[in-house]
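yo, WW domain-containing protein is done. seq:
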Amino acid sequence: MRGRDNPRAPPRSGRSSRGSSRVRSHTETGIYTRRPSHESINRARVSPTPSRVSVDRIPEHEPKVSESTEVEFVLSKKFEGKKLYPTMFINRYERNIEIPRRKEDYEFKLPPLTVDFFRKDVPRGWTAHVHPEGALYFYHESRNIYTDANIIEPGMLEEVTALVAALDKYADENGIRISHNTELVLELEEEENKEISWNYYYVDNFRRTLFWIHEHDVTWLTSELHGETSLPHFKHEMDRYYWMHIEYFPHHHDLNRDMADELIGILVHSLAGEEIHQLTSPSSTVLFSVDTLSKMLSIAKEIKASPSKPESVSIHGLFGLESHPRFLHYHGQHGARLNRDQSVHDQNPKRRSSLVTILAPSLFNAPFVHLRMLEKIWIDETMCIQPWEQFIEKLKEEWQEFVLFATVLLNANVAFLAIPSVDPGNNSRTPAQVASYISIATSTGSIIVALLLIRQYRVKPRETVEEAAKFLLSKTHTTRGMETLAIVYSLPYALLMWGTLTFLLAFSLECFKATHPAALSISAVTWFLVGFLIIWTIYTAWESDDPFVERVQRKMQEVLQSARTLVVRKGPAEKTTDPGPGTPAASIESGSAV
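structure:
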């Protein structure tokens, strides 16, 4: 993200008064997204070649068609000059239509012999269909028109009729011929000023794409990318919305066996790739785990046996699983992303700000560890839900362990302060007591911070990719990136380490209060060995590519190089000025002359 507010709100041909529309966001699939927005669709969509068998003829929702299907679409004078706006989707899941509450004296009675419960108020030429999820939409068979608009209302039917007529008029005036197999989708939305806006898109089922008869500015769709796009590259994003169209309007879009085989092939390829990459490349761009892909494959095989059943519409969302990720990964382009932790824009190491550079040593370099993991998840401001979930689960386990360790350390400090020799009892505080107090404070701080973080991710787990992306976007600074978030994640560990070190300091101060030489010697040798083992462990276990270690090693090399240079420069001068005892003066003069 680049810090822009609602970067993916789709502009509609210059209309500034439009509210931002949204499509349904299937974030449970874990599809990549960079900008959580009203338009982010995290489940891919599919589109088969249309057949002519309805998938939603459920008995209690049987479509009712009028006797005559000859309908004339006329553009009345009051609609002349009204603008037409291209759109990419139907705002079905964000309409928030309110059903008025019934009155107290409301009655509903069935006439005698009522056996037909189908709709009888559908306008002539239209049929009503019910999506398996419950949404009502209408279809005009002779013109292949779909709409969610409630055309049962006369005013809305007049708007739809005029919209179709306006599209026909524009196409005729501009010499545009639309194939009779082309589908037309109409979206009528109410503006803030109560005006109805006309939105549309056409569907080419043979090429599996959407198109328009007006120029359509789709720059907002490329806002997830830092680079430029091209027509072959943008086709992946068009696939996404094409599959979504089929899922929204399953009527006449049954799943045939060829499409089932195509879907099975996609899932088998992803499943095989994920199994291999789990062994060879944990950073694979495959979206789902092996278990999830296996379940999808099993469902696809079951639906293949009966593809024309209404339940098959649920499988449509699996077809385009890779459409949007391919768009984000520059699939098929020169320099495409092949691993999900690979940047396609910036190959140079990121510069760290002064904030994390100064604070990291005092926090035992823990922020750098979390920062590197966050940057691998939020690469090029895109993400996948699977590594994010693994990262958060690992963090929560660590924080729970830190709470336990800090509690034990807190009890140890309380027991240490209860030792009579530690507290002299004269209202004065020894250095050992002060160190123990500091240990108690840092241990308590570790417990509090860890509990707050654990609760935050339990109350707001951010289980969907949209929620996670929105969270990471809000925590990404323009210059510091996610350094602040990494520092916060490292606080429980850092405070616990400070509590442990100050407790060791308090205990050592108490040990060295002894005056007997043997006791002092034993304590000194023991502490020296323990300190040596700790330093050895840190040096051995620390990753060589850690920025702090690299800086320390670089400084040490510079110091050693400076020392060598100084010795080399001083060496010849010392030999010349100090000839040594017994050397004749003439020899010195002769040598210097040579």
